[in-house]
Amino acid sequence: MLSRTKLSLFLLLLFILEGSVVQVFVPSAWGMSYETIPRFALVGTILISLFIGRREGLLYGLVFGLLQDVIFGHIIGVYTLSMMVAGYFAGLVLMLFHRSFAVVFTTLLLVLFGHEWLTYTLFRLFMTNPVDVQWTLTHEIFPTVLFNMLFAAFVYIPMKKLCLQVQENKERSHE
């Protein structure tokens, strides 16, 4: 139980960091035309889904997606839906492939891109002033995915250890 609490608090810390401290270091704060959006809680949710399972990823996606919608969102439900879908589909990879470093980072790349694309299309559907697809891909989606992949490289080992502790406690409680 304590390891699950540590994992949840670590994900909450990532969520707080993405909305506060990291905003100083994004390229748009320095006058560049590229927009990078830190999605640290999403990276954590995807890693949880890859190491523990798709239901855990779905649950953490629901909680942190709703938190993202309430605090930062313009439309309630967009980030909730996209983070839940991202967490669930990342967990489906466990059923198809062996969990290795290459599979984890390839899945992370594809799911981050899918999340950004889904949120773009949902916002484009509901907004009256749509943004050009090519500009969005080159100035927002690709830099955001790259930025979050770099972050994932730093947080991979601690998240893996926390997730394995949760998995061990989960298996021990079922025996």
List the helices and strands and how they pair.
Blueprint: H1 2-19, H2 40-51, H3 54-72, H4 78-96, H5 101-126, H6 133-174
Helix pairs in contact: 1-2, 1-6, 2-3, 2-4, 2-5, 2-6, 3-4, 4-5, 5-6
Report on this model:
Keywords: Cell membrane, Cell shape, Membrane, Transmembrane, Transmembrane helix. One of its GO terms (cellular component) is plasma membrane. Belongs to the MreD family. The chain has a single domain, classed as Orthogonal Bundle (Arp2/3 complex 21 kDa subunit ARPC3). 78% of the residues lie in helices and 0% in strands. It has helices spanning 2-19, 40-51, 54-72, 78-96, 101-126, 133-174. The chain is globular and about 55 Å long. 36% of the residues are buried. The protein contains six helices and no strands. It has 175 residues and is an all-alpha fold.
Beginning-to-end CA distance, first to last residue: 15 Å
Percent helix: over 70%
In what range is the share of β-strand residues?
under 5%
The major beta sheet can be summarized as: none
Based on CA atoms alone, the radius of gyration comes out at 16 Å
What's the order of the H and E elements?
HHHHHH
Subcellular location: Cell membrane
Protein name: Rod shape-determining protein MreD
Membrane topology: Multi-pass membrane protein
Transmembrane segments: 101-120, 141-159
Q: Could you give a quick summary of the protein structure above?
A:
With 175 residues, the chain is mainly α. The chain has six helices and no strands.
Task: Give me some keywords for this one.
single chain; mainly alpha; Arp2/3 complex 21 kDa subunit ARPC3; 0% strand; cell membrane
